């Protein structure tokens, strides 16, 4: 696979998908809206420019993966039978689990005051998140966010289709978290361990809370959930009942 094209392309598709769905049908999803402003009002020119830079960084990192595969350094593979179906399933859990921990820790690092003031503050200039906010980064943060991929393929054997599926899901979840809409307010209690859009929307509003990506586990363990996270989630559950 040509990862230098796939990674930025999946990011673009995710942005366009959420933008088109929610920009053109605001009344249809009114009950799911977290943000008061529409996308066109919320969008800043700087977010578009920084997103373009991030896409170039994604392409560069994808190129690194391509180079690692060309050199035979990457542990990616094609056939399922190379490691068996059992490992295929296990590798999916390992990939998502390691990425979830990496994101939480790197996100906390980005909020370290010296780094925040020079790097991560740019992302937090998106006070009203929208699809373009998802990848509106300082270039260094862009490398940190996507830099997980060329590292993990040197360590963990991964089927190329698993890696592709992971990239698609990662990009969709990143944009979903910045969409300003809560798409899963009525999820079953067993799934409450997974973060929702409210979780990251609060992060942009309150800055010092809600650092997790997929799982709410790390915010619970390190007590970094916003005090009103559960209350606001309940509000949206009741709002669409």
From TrEMBL:
<feature type="transmembrane region" description="Helical">
    <location>
        <begin position="132"/>
        <end position="155"/>
    </location>
</feature>
<feature type="transmembrane region" description="Helical">
    <location>
        <begin position="6"/>
        <end position="22"/>
    </location>
</feature>
<dbReference type="GO" id="GO:0016020">
    <property type="term" value="C:membrane"/>
</dbReference>
<keyword id="KW-0472">Membrane</keyword>
<protein>
    <submittedName>
        <fullName>Sterol desaturase</fullName>
    </submittedName>
</protein>
<keyword id="KW-0812">Transmembrane</keyword>
<dbReference type="InterPro" id="IPR050307">
    <property type="entry name" value="Sterol_Desaturase_Related"/>
</dbReference>
<dbReference type="GO" id="GO:0008610">
    <property type="term" value="P:lipid biosynthetic process"/>
</dbReference>
<dbReference type="GO" id="GO:0005506">
    <property type="term" value="F:iron ion binding"/>
</dbReference>
<feature type="transmembrane region" description="Helical">
    <location>
        <begin position="85"/>
        <end position="105"/>
    </location>
</feature>
<dbReference type="InterPro" id="IPR006694">
    <property type="entry name" value="Fatty_acid_hydroxylase"/>
</dbReference>
<feature type="domain" description="Fatty acid hydroxylase">
    <location>
        <begin position="93"/>
        <end position="224"/>
    </location>
</feature>
<dbReference type="GO" id="GO:0016491">
    <property type="term" value="F:oxidoreductase activity"/>
</dbReference>
<feature type="transmembrane region" description="Helical">
    <location>
        <begin position="48"/>
        <end position="65"/>
    </location>
</feature>
<keyword id="KW-1133">Transmembrane helix</keyword>
<dbReference type="Pfam" id="PF04116">
    <property type="entry name" value="FA_hydroxylase"/>
</dbReference>
